[in-house]
Amino acid sequence: MTDPSAVWAYAVAERVPAAGLDELEGIEGGRVRAVPAAGLVAIAGDVPLSGFSEAALRRNLEDLAWLEATARAHHRVIAAVAEDGPVVPLRLATVYRDDASTAAALAEFGGQFRSALAQTRAHKEWGIKAYATRPAEPGAPDDGRGSSERGADRKSAGSGAAYLDRRRRELTAHEQARRGVVAGAELVHARLAGLADQSRLHPPQSPQLAGHRAQMLLNASYLLPDDRDGDFAAAVDELAGQHGELRIEITGPWPPYSFAGLPEAGQP
Questions:
Q1: Is residue 265 part of a domain?
Q2: Fewer CB in a 10 Å sphere around the end CB: N or C, the chain?
Q3: CA atoms of 163 and 246, how far apart (whole Å)
Q4: 12 & 85 share domain
Q5: pLDDT of 151 strictly over 60
Q6: Which pTM does this prediction carry?
């Protein structure tokens, strides 16, 4: 008996890509196809309902290996289709019961899809992450002296007023340094947002998720016209030189993931 299927939607486009979809490999190696409706096209593929129902997806999304492989396949399809023209990337795990419900979503949200396509035409998304280059530790500022010298100071200060005064000054210096680094990240964002048509601030990632010990202070996306990419990259280089307290990383270009602003799909 054949396992019933559902429809995994990758993106919405204005038309089927000229190069076709036959060569694309989708989720779990599945075939990618087009579902046309309401003058738009959903780029989609069939997936087994047993693995992609609401309950199954809830389990699978907690499996990091599954999540990484699925996210890569999802992005691979969107990036390939985006090379042919504007697309609206859909959120990971946008799943419909069948082609009819996929077509119904295109009709229901057609105005939003067309608006998003118009706003992102000839645009790309770029990402910026900025980290503190030398995260200060309260009570251990980098004053150019070794730990043995600081330890001697503490011994001489004992537990009295001199030690408490030194501790207050250390904490004040740490707070001032922290504020300076945060202000630098805000200046970086303001400059880059001025070059973009739209920008989005995302929550900073934890050191574990980001893969860096340094604190992330800026996690942002910028929607740029294709002819402004060079100016943006030059501004990033300039800002990196001006703000030595930050390590600035640029990623992209990407399809406009952060700028679709579309509703969630219903689950089968």
A1: no
A2: N
A3: 32
A4: yes
A5: no
A6: 0.75
Residues 193 and 236: beta-carbon distance below 8 Å: no
Show which of 121, 145, 173 is a domain's final residue: 121
Assess if residue 268 is contained within a domain: no
What is the percent of the chain with per-residue pLDDT over 70, rounded to a whole number? 77
Peptide bond into 253 cis (omega under 30): yes
Please state, in angstroms and rounded to a whole number, the distance separating the CA atoms of residues 43 and 136: 48
Q: How many domains does the chain have?
A: 2
What is the rounded distance in angstroms from the CA atom of residue 44 to the CA atom of residue 188?
Answer: 38
88 pLDDT more than 90? yes
Angle of CA points 49, 20, 264, to nearest 5°: 40
Q: Which helix (H) or strand (E) holds 62?
A: none
> Pick the residue with more confidence: 116 or 178?
116
Mean pLDDT highest for which of 31-35, 55-59, 161-165? 31-35
The average pLDDT across 23-42 equals 93
pLDDT in tens, 197-232: 999 999 988 776 656 677 899 999 999 999 999 999
Among 121, 155, 187, the domain boundary falls at: 121
